[in-house]
Amino acid sequence: MNIRTYCETDEAAVAALWRQAFAYTPPWNVPEEDITRKLAVQPELFFVAEFDGEVVGTAMAGYDGHRGWVYYVAVSPKHRRQGIGKALMRRVEQALAVIGCPKLNLQVRAGSHEAVAFYRRLGYDVEERVSMSKRLKGLSPEGDEREGRHV
Ligand SMILES: CC(C)(COP(=O)(O)OP(=O)(O)OC[C@H]1O[C@@H](n2cnc3c(N)ncnc32)[C@H](O)[C@@H]1OP(=O)(O)O)[C@@H](O)C(=O)NCCC(=O)NCCS
């Protein structure tokens, strides 16, 4: 098993893995679009695990200058419980530490007890936070046209 950075020929395999591993994903998370955006920002923090020439795992990380974040941590079902998820997370931690990131955050969907158990085994703690978000589609640099506001 080898962990390396994502390369463009991985797209179909990665998208298929995500559609399988994150079947609950909302419709606005289109794997191919998420991959394209990641390739424009810190593509060196996008990792795949390869086994026998096949993509069997992924982890997509980023550092915003304050915290690191990781998304799309997934291992194909038939390769789980063999240490691949752990190896991907260790690679992410190492890559973030090298560029000075002091803390790695991640989000887990409420009720994903197995994912919480996995991250706990890797030394992650649950922090009491309320996760908030706002979708930015429709915002232009001149202001929010949908709301008629200019900021
Ligand atoms: C979560 C996931 C990435 C784990 O990958 P994996 O390769 O099977 O994990 P590993 O084999 O590296 O396991 C690392 C540790 O976590 C533990 N672990 C893994 N899956 C677990 C589970 N479902 N329940 C409890 N513990 C688990 C392992 O026992 C291991 O512990 P150890 O180091 O003491 O032996 C994988 O199950 C997956 O892709 N799930 C679907 C997508 C998902 O939920 N992603 C995470 C949320 S964003």
Main attributes?
alpha+beta, two-stranded antiparallel sheet, single chain, five-stranded mixed β-sheet, 7 strands, binds coenzyme A, about 150 residues
Descriptive account of the structure:
This protein is an alpha+beta fold. The protein has a single domain, classed as Gcn5-related N-acetyltransferase (GNAT) (Aminopeptidase, 3-Layer(aba) Sandwich), CATH 3.40.630. Helices cover 30% and strands 23% of the residues. The protein is built from 4 helices and 7 strands. The longest helix is centred in the middle third of the chain and has 15 residues, at 84-98. The model is unreliable at 144-151 (pLDDT under 50).
Query: Any idea what the radius of gyration is?
Result: 17 Å
Global mean pLDDT: 92
**Low confidence ranges:** 144-151
Q: Which ligands occur here?
A: coenzyme A
Strand content: 15-25%
Please count the beta strands (DSSP E, at least 2 residues each): 7
* Helix content estimate: 25-40%
Characterize the biggest β-sheet.
Answer: 5 strands, mixed
Order of helices and strands: EHHEEEHEHEE
Spatial shape: globular
What strand line-up does the widest sheet have?
1-2-3-4-5
Structure classification: alpha+beta
CATH topology: Aminopeptidase
CATH homologous superfamily title: Gcn5-related N-acetyltransferase (GNAT)
Q: Total number of helical segments?
A: 4
